[in-house]
Specification:
single chain; mainly alpha; DNA Binding (I), subunit A; 3 domains; two-stranded antiparallel ribbon; 2 strands; elongated
């Protein structure tokens, strides 16, 4: 095995950065390169080049390359769904250097362009994850004040849907540290562990789909649980 240091462009001049842009584009056989592609073959982070020259498009122009055909106008929901998937696969908050292919559809620069910085991206993402809490409250609030009063009937009026949304599922995994509440299994420490989010008091027993009635369980602990519960 050969041991050698990887090249770095820390403290590089403008021309050295532009030269690496040209080299990277040539390495993939194109006359342009996207930020996501550069993150795979370049010697520095694409945001370094973006900050140095003001924009990715300006850097390409100065390097004598064609404008990249990166997808523009990506909906925020799509960017956040991608980030949710990456966060879930890692079992922790992603670092900006980890936001790249093949684990991420979009590079960190895409998020930084949209939200201003990686920190602001994470803040916007957390707000998005919690949006369905307010939405559910509005959707399930009784329109007639009389309906808010207890009904003298055995039929319980449901406040929530049975289905657990992707956002809520992620929120519970995040709250529980991506760890089974029963046995402590976690994919962070034990690759291959599959985690579920399920009701504590089953839906069929009157349990609601609220954060405080949901918990993380590994597939093994959740298997065959049925409607059995304590409490």
């Amino acid at each position: 095995m050969d041991f050698k240091l990887e090249e770095s462009l820390r403290g590089a001049s403008d021309e050295e950065l532009l030269q690496d842009l040209r080299r990277s584009a040539d390495s993939i056989g194109r006359t342009t390169i996207t930020m996501g592609e550069y993150s795979q073959v370049g010697k520095t982070h694409p945001s370094t080049i973006q900050r140095r020259f003001g924009s990715w498009t300006k850097a390409l122009q100065l390097a004598g390359l064609q404008p990249s055909r990166s997808r523009i106008g990506i909906p925020n929901d799509e960017l956040f769904e991608n980030l949710r998937s990456l966060w879930s696969s890692l079992g922790r908050q992603p670092r900006d250097g980890e936001v790249k292919q093949p684990n991420s559809k979009y590079a960190a620069g895409t998020y930084e362009n949209r939200f201003g910085s990686w920190t602001k991206t994470l803040q916007a993402f957390v707000t998005w994850v919690n949006l369905d809490v307010a939405d559910d409250r509005k959707e399930n609030a009784p329109s007639d004040p009389k309906l808010a009063q207890p009904l003298n009937t055995k039929l319980k009026v449901r406040r929530t849907r049975r289905e657990i949304s992707d956002r809520q599922r992620f929120r519970i995994l995040l709250r529980d540290g991506f760890t089974c509440r029963a046995c402590g299994a976690s994919p962070i420490r034990q690759p291959g562990v599959e985690l579920h989010v399920d009701h504590i008091i089953p839906w069929s027993k009157g349990g609601e789909t609220t954060d405080d009635n949901l918990q993380t369980k590994c597939a093994k602990c959740n298997l065959g649980k049925g409607n059995a519960f304590v409490g």
